[in-house]
Design a protein that fits this description.
The structure is a homodimer. Chain A is α/β, with parallel strands linked by helices. Chain A is built from 15 helices and 17 strands. Chain A folds into 3 domains: 2-171, Molybdenum Cofactor Biosythetic Enzyme, Chain A; 175-253, 2-Layer Sandwich (Alpha-Beta Plaits); 258-411, CinA-like (Maf protein, Alpha-Beta Complex). Chain A has a 6-stranded mixed β-sheet with strand order 2-1-3-8-7-6, sandwiched between helices. Chain A has a 5-stranded mixed β-sheet with strand order 14-13-15-16-17, sandwiched between helices. A 4-stranded antiparallel β-sheet of chain A has the order 10-11-9-12, with helices on one face. In chain A, strand 16 and strand 17 form a beta hairpin. The two termini of chain A are 50 Å apart.
């Protein structure tokens, strides 16, 4: 089954927000065996919305839209789609009651402007949206379908899972588009390609793609339009080959987060972790605590942004800071040792570096980062010079810190 | 001037990565007076790439693509665009030399696979890419233009700024599409709409849109196709009206980050800031340190994820934790006081809450967060119950913490 996605909102084309809905729809639909063959974004303009939806309908007969269902004047998706199907908008009494009830629960009177949200194209199926005021709408006529979802990501996500995917499953023909990815880090794309590229012929008709990011390079294999069991069998075999060739540089599959991998390594060893970070400024701890259930391994950390905290809280000797500078092997080792000793835990990570845009020197350019990992009495320290802007350098440093600890624990007896 | 953007990569349609390039292109082009009328994404498939680029060319005559310029087999943009223009690919000696030189500088031999990156459509202008191996390409024939940029965001960004925008400026007709936004937080979209909605008629032909996110609601006014001076004058007037109506809920304009606003408030008062965070787990410090130059105000903080750090490092009395629980007004006040006293600074923020997915109770459901801000001896504490998943709750809590301190400082004598 194939469809197109049309995301609606001038803010998308103006780049004022990043279109996460398109990615989320793509992921969920692919998982359900539905191939998104094209995604388009158009502005909040009647003619643009109507043309994009009509063209997508002509190509695939099935379109999912997001956005333009709110109560304000820039919300016009419903009107344009109704016109495309030659259906009038009518006030839906049940939707209106649900809206009024929602406002009553929040202890507020319903603003008059929200009343338009109870208008639906004649004959449309209303998809109840318990998370917001705009219901989803499923309009179908002579085999052509447009499903309209709100643009607020959490509302879109809920409606997709609860109302749209089950209906799509009923229509599915048993053929799926499925991917699996092997995640690597600490190795360049072209070096990886030389190591794994030769398998491309072996795994055909599956395709292989390389996806570099600040977290490393992902290897993605995709099965297009195969039956589910055949796709799964071929994907499993291809993934096993990729993992073998990726070796120690591979740390997981699919959405696996390196922070979750490291937490799991530590959990299995009943070890606890603390972090001392300077240039990453909380980002590394933030990544670790983004993993649900991190609290049984991660006890906390110190954001030692100023040297006052490096010496005062982490016990880094001021002479080390004076002699070698805050971005040095000596200081990063002392930070890791200090934070590990202070909180008496098994594992510790430390990061210090120059994230820019200023602060670089000829000897220590912007992007220079020292990392240290401790596991018991085992220690590794590493210097890296990361490319990119401040955000990228901080993201790469967080990932590299986690990777250093991952490799240290894996090598431990 | 109008154009379309086509982003290429199966990973985009499969939702494995979020398409940040589309947003970045939209923002940069709008700033240069170029309207992106449509954005499409297609998979790494020859027919899909060729159809999307051809249709976009038919509509606007000018297309910018990203992605599919790498050295691997899934990279096929160049070949399809060359075919669309009936131009052969030829090996460009200068590009090949630059590639070989790049590998030499990195101390490595060039893999054979990278040689294809030196092939360019006959007659194309090569846009030098100092950040990566894939150059950009500008193909132009009988008034139709396709500009191909690499998909790696930092490379795309560099080529856009240095090679594409200057060339577009030369073609510009003096008419621009410009937006300004007023950022608000701590107020609901519909409440805001009732306060500001009436200005929509006053500001026409400018349009107004409401953009809700975890950071609050942005109000965006856009001038479409006006001369630059006229657009700027009308936008300034509309923005001033919006700011007045937004009142204390408005904290800035355009891309203004609330963390930067708070850092600037503190900098003007020569005050320094520390943070004690539990449920946000480093995210709040990470947001603050994402602002370049944060180090003259922000000295660091404690990620007190485990109660051991709350009592041991932040001096929260164990009786408070036992009696009221870690997520309570008493504990958040003690955390703020403890971290402020320990580091002897003027301003402090503390956050403790239940980010979920587990850990909620009837009395303290998932999303319950206590926030405290201190400025000198002034203190404010606030309980909020945030909607959304773990990530959204943590993002909303970070924003609300910054907002609490912003309002406290603004009210200080």
């Amino acid at each position: 089954m194939k469809l197109e996605v049309v995301t609606i909102g001038s803010e998308l084309l103006l780049g004022q927000i990043i279109d996460t809905n398109a990615a989320e729809l793509g992921r969920a639909l692919a998982g359900a065996g539905v191939e998104v063959v094209r995604h388009s974004s158009v502005a909040d303009r009647p003619d643009a919305i109507r043309a994009a939806v009509a063209e997508a309908l002509d190509r695939t007969g099935f379109v999912i839209t997001t956005g333009g269902l709110g109560p304000t004047r820039d919300d016009m998706t419903k009107k344009e789609v109704a016109a495309l199907f030659n259906k009038p908008l009518r006030l839906d009494a049940a939707v209106l009651r649900a809206l009024e009830e929602r406002f009553r629960r929040l202890g507020r009177a319903m603003p008059a402007v929200n009343r338009t949200q109870a208008e639906v194209p004649d004959g449309a199926t209303v998809l109840a949206n318990p998370r917001g005021t705009a219901p989803g709408l499923w309009v179908e006529d002579r085999g052509r379908v447009v499903v309209m979802l709100p643009g607020v990501p959490s509302e879109m996500r809920g409606l997709l899972a609860e109302e749209v995917l089950p209906r799509l499953a009923e229509r599915s023909s048993g053929v799926v588009v499925r991917s699996r990815t092997v995640r690597t880090t600490g190795v360049a794309e072209s070096a990886l390609a030389e190591r794994v590229g030769a398998i491309e012929d072996d795994i055909a008709p599956l395709t292989l793609a390389y996806l570099p990011s600040t977290e490393g390079v992902e290897l993605r294999v995709t099965a297009w339009g195969l039956r589910a069991d055949d796709a799964e069998r071929r994907l499993a075999a291809a993934t096993a080959q990729l993992r073998e060739r990726a070796g120690e540089d591979g740390y997981g599959e699919d959405g696996t987060d390196l922070a979750a991998v490291v937490l799991e390594q530590l959990r299995a060893r009943k070890a606890r972790l603390v972090v001392a970070e300077s240039c990453t400024g909380g980002l590394l701890s933030g990544r670790i605590t983004a993993v649900p259930g991190a609290s049984d391994v991660f006890i906390g950390g110190v954001v030692a942004y100023d040297n006052v905290l490096k010496s005062g809280t982490l016990d880094v000797r001021p002479e080390l800071l004076d002699k070698h500078g805050a971005v040095s092997e000596q200081v990063v080792r002392a930070m890791a040792e200090g934070v590990q000793r202070q909180f008496a835990v098994d594992a510790a990570l430390a990061v210090t570096g120059i994230a820019g845009p200023t602060g670089g020197t000829a000897e220590k350019p912007v992007g220079t980062v020292w990392l240290a990992a401790r596991y018991g009495a085992d220690v590794r320290a590493l210097r890296r010079i990361f490319p990119g802007d401040r955000g990228e350098i901080r993201a790469r440093a967080s990932q590299a810190a986690l990777d250093l600890l991952r490799r240290l624990i894996a090598a431990a007896p």
